[in-house]
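quick one before i forget lol
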Amino acid sequence: MSERVTTVVIGAGHAGLAASQFLSNRSIDHVVLERGEVANSWRRERWDSLRLLTPNWQCRVPGLRYEGPDPDGYMTMAEIAEFIERFAKVSGAPVRTGTNVTSVRQVDDEYQVTTTDGGIRCRAVVIASGACNQAAVPSFATAVPAPVKQLTPFEYRDPGQLPEGGVLVVGASATGVQLAAELQQSGRPVTLSVGEHVRLPRTYRGRDVLWWMDESGVWDQRYDEIDDLTRARRLPSPQLAGTPQRTTLDINALTAMGVQLVGRWAAVRDGRALFSGGLRNMFSLADLKMERLLDTFDEWAQNGLEAEVGPSERFAPTRVPESARLQLDLESGEIRTVIWATGFRPDYSWLDVPVVDAKGQLRHEGGAVVDSPGLYALGLPVLRRRKSTFIYGIEDDARDVIDHLGRYLSGSR
């Protein structure tokens, strides 16, 4: 006999806990199911030196915000895990840890949730299990010669776990540039394979660049106001790092450290990694987009903010190497390790409802899952606003989604 509850929330990270808070505010009985412990992915699936990309003052969730002595700093993984755990306690969320969801399926107009701890029948489900459950590794990784060690960001912890010798980091978004910098500084020769990327300075006109994104309203843009929503949801994370020095970590910073650049890794043939050309065009496009964004900030600052910020700035174009290699012999011993910083994807293998597209993405409209009334999502990129990806973006998203869920339960559209 299945337990009955009105709503099941899957995942006890910041998104699931925010959903729980708004469900409690509406007196909707619910349970939050977590496969590990609260903030599990922050505790178990990050490398040791990682810090949040967002400044501490931006760490806020419903009913709780950072109030420490370093608002312009960036939380370590241990600190963010503690912050989310405190959120669970303050909100009184009904979390069941160590409970793995193995299936969600529709039964009539309800859902049957099967877990390692029994079954639950409910009227609504909120999927808050995250967008980064699996590393997105290209299929040709299987052709990399066996002596070369391959790791994803889930498996990487620190440089000491790698064999001596060169490292090829694949991907130049936030994860890739941070790992390339850490490994280069550890004394290893690093080659970075660069594909599409988003370049941003860490600070602009004396303020954190994310302050500008927040205050200017760029990240409040709603999903239904974005021309190409699919592309917006698939954009790589910006080249940012949260360091005590608040330094910019972009391609220029990496090449100054000695990191070698190659183009996008396209294939493996006869033990050789083949890279595309066109770095110059890739860099020009990233630089152009950054300049346009800075122009937006400058225009906004003219509305009475000029006295509060520094003078307008512009940054040197990304330096193109005089010659970039188009292939690397992976059997020569030059490269001993490959780290796939090629993005992440969600895992919906347990979701036995036909609402996932051919690319493994949930079909939803602002968090309400298409073709399955009563099924909702939170914590996905650009779910309802551009800021949805970040912790501080969850409050507005969760409020809207649970409002929709409440109307659904009451029979209203």
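fyi The chain is about 25% helix and 20% strand.
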